[in-house]
Specification:
alpha/beta, Glycerol-3-phosphate (1)-acyltransferase, 7-stranded mixed sheet, 7 strands, 42% helix, globular
């Protein structure tokens, strides 16, 4: 009989119960205050505290570069690669903007977490049958001054390589004339890999690139814009991940 590893035991018997408590307490606070604050501003503060607690408990250190490129009074569409479920807390802690995410609809069925997402302005999407109104809902969020965080790969990467991007969010950004900010997350896959119930302490780098203005672009430029953003993110991932540089992928 194989003895479970220390990190597996730590995840199952310590981290999961601790994160469940964080979720229950802060989720209840955010849902309660959403009755008075339907914009979700207070709830976002709860989400940032929740994110910080998760990273601190897991012992994940995040180094952020490029934050000085952002202006607090500007609405952005943040476009990131996706390596781990830890990417969301990493980004929420690191970027000081009111962020809303596009998440898969199944997350809405989770007690507390799902209620928080539904009540505080995040978008839950059925990927198999996306609503025809999703574009309108995204546009409204952006008009209201909330920034959006999007993972256009559509799923987490198992090996760290950046998959091709879906282009829908780029078209919406062009139509709304909103700047796109490429964000590279490097190292989070070592904290918790896709398909594995185990977390490990780790160091993660978050690179915020120069915002790309879209006011002068049209729908005909969307493919080129998507490729440009992906290449920008991929260059940081490949430069900062030693395994990708050497071609030695640990699965």
């Amino acid at each position: 009989m194989k003895i479970p590893s220390f990190h597996w035991c730590r995840t199952v018997f310590f981290l999961i119960p601790a994160i469940s408590i964080y979720t229950l307490v802060l989720g209840a606070l955010s849902i309660g205050f959403s009755l008075f604050d339907r914009r979700g501003v207070f709830a976002h503060g709860c989400a940032r505290i929740w994110s910080w607690l998760i990273l601190a408990t897991t012992n994940v250190d995040v180094t952020v570069s490029g934050i000085e490129r952002l202006r607090r009074d500007v609405t952005y569409v943040f476009v990131s690669n996706h390596q781990s479920i830890y990417d969301i807390p990493i980004i929420f802690v690191s970027i000081p903007h009111q962020l809303r995410i596009i998440a898969k609809e199944s997350l809405g069925r989770f007690p507390v977490l799902g209620w928080h997402l539904r009540w505080t302005g995040h978008l839950l999407v059925n990927r198999a049958r996306p609503s025809s109104k999703i574009g309108e809902r995204i546009s409204k969020l952006l008009r209201d001054g909330f920034s959006l965080i999007v993972f256009p790969e559509g799923t987490r990467s198992r090996d760290g390589n950046v998959a091709p991007f879906k282009r829908g969010v780029f078209l919406l950004s062009v139509e709304a004339s909103l700047p796109i900010v490429p964000v590279a997350v490097v190292g989070s896959r070592h904290v918790m890999r896709k398909g594995r119930l185990m977390t490990c302490p780790g160091e993660v780098q978050l690179v915020i690139h120069e915002p790309i203005l879209t006011a002068s672009l049209t729908a005909a430029d969307v493919r080129k814009l998507s490729n440009r953003v992906r290449e920008t993110i991929n260059s940081s991932v490949e430069a900062l991940d030693p395994e990708l540089r050497r071609g030695q992928i640990v699965r």
